[in-house]
Amino acid sequence: PPRRGRSLGLKLSPLTIYTTNMSKRTPLIAGNWKMNKTATDGIELVKAISAAVGIDPNVNIVLCPPFTALSAVGAAIEGSHLALGAQNLHDKTNGAFTGEISASMLRDLHVTHVIIGHSERRSIFGEDDAFVNRKVHAALGATLRPILCVGELLAEREANQTMEVVRRQVEKGLEGVPAAKADHVIIAYEPVWAIGTGKTATPAMAQEVHAFIRKLLTQQFGAESAARILILYGGSMKPDNADALLAEQDIDGGLIGGASLEAKSFVELVRSASKSVAG
Ligand code: PGA
């Protein structure tokens, strides 16, 4: 049955949705539309995706349109297998913060997920780890699931600093998050040099970092909780490289930019993720 339809209202916390299967992680494919698609375009896209995907218990799907399309896209996916995410939020609950959007405003639009600390936010808008951490707390406090993005720059990889950078971003980003909320957290590893460039980390390179992230999560939350946390890969994930990435043990789905803007490629990625479970 549809689990995230608007008809369920807000009484069912979105935070309980993915935690029923303790042994196996249900993969998640999340579309990050960035600053693309009007509400009108968005409706068309999600209708095509929903029609193609139907209800698939082997994969979860989240679409993250721009703020201006959240309401329309939310209405268009009502009762479907698709869930709604935002691309950012502000950490304060309300007040004189011109141009910003709070967690409760997102919840009011039936948003269940929110991307936090995307590399474009960090590099173009100057977000630091402390701000990212406050946003994570704001999201969790409003029962939104944060998709915390981490990843190294090309210069950092070349200087052998990948693990150090990822450690800092994970530890600072999740600072103060109690083990009781671990299941609500999603991590996205996105090597910055792979975002929108057509360069993907090889499956082995990505797996190495994903395994390291799970080790960090184990240190903070314990092995059982860490084993349930989804770690997505992002950075030029496309239909032709997804199978190999998703076959890796600690790659639990994808955060998809470019390939999420067209139904055909996005649906192919959803099918890859679904197949990775079935197979
Ligand atoms: P990309 O973007 O798939 O276009 O590389 C991924 C992201 O930035 O989340």
Can you characterise this structure?
The protein is of the alpha/beta class and 279 residues long. The protein is built from 11 helices and 8 strands. The chain has an 8-stranded parallel barrel, surrounded by 6 helices. Strand 7 (230-234), helix 10 (239-246) and strand 8 form a beta-alpha-beta unit. Helix 1 (39-53) packs parallel to helix 11 (263-278) and helix 7 (162-173) packs parallel to helix 8 (203-221). The two termini are 23 Å apart. Mean pLDDT is 92; it is low at 1-23. 2-phosphoglycolic acid is lined by residues 32, 190, 195-196, 234-237, 255-259.
Task: Supply database-style keywords.
alpha/beta, 11 helices, disordered N terminus, binds 2-phosphoglycolic acid
Helix and strand layout, with pairings?
Elements: E1 28-32, H1 39-53, E2 60-64, H2 67-76, E3 82-86, H3 103-108, E4 113-116, H4 119-124, H5 129-141, E5 145-150, H6 154-158, H7 162-173, E6 186-189, H8 203-221, H9 223-228, E7 230-234, H10 239-246, E8 253-256, H11 263-278
Parallel strand pairs: 1-2, 1-8, 2-3, 3-4, 4-5, 5-6, 6-7, 7-8
Helix pairs in contact: 1-2, 1-11, 5-7, 7-8, 10-11
The protein binds 2-phosphoglycolic acid.
Residues 32, 190, 195-196, 234-237, 255-259 line the site of 2-phosphoglycolic acid.
Bound molecules: 2-phosphoglycolic acid
Secondary structure tally: strands = 8
Order of helices and strands: EHEHEHEHHEHHEHHEHEH
* Tally of helical segments: 11
Q: What are the low-pLDDT stretches, counting only 5+ consecutive residues below 50?
A: 1-23
Helix coverage percent: 40-55%
Measured by DSSP, the beta-strand proportion falls in 5-15%
Q: How much is the radius of gyration in Å?
A: 17 Å
The termini sit apart by: 23 Å
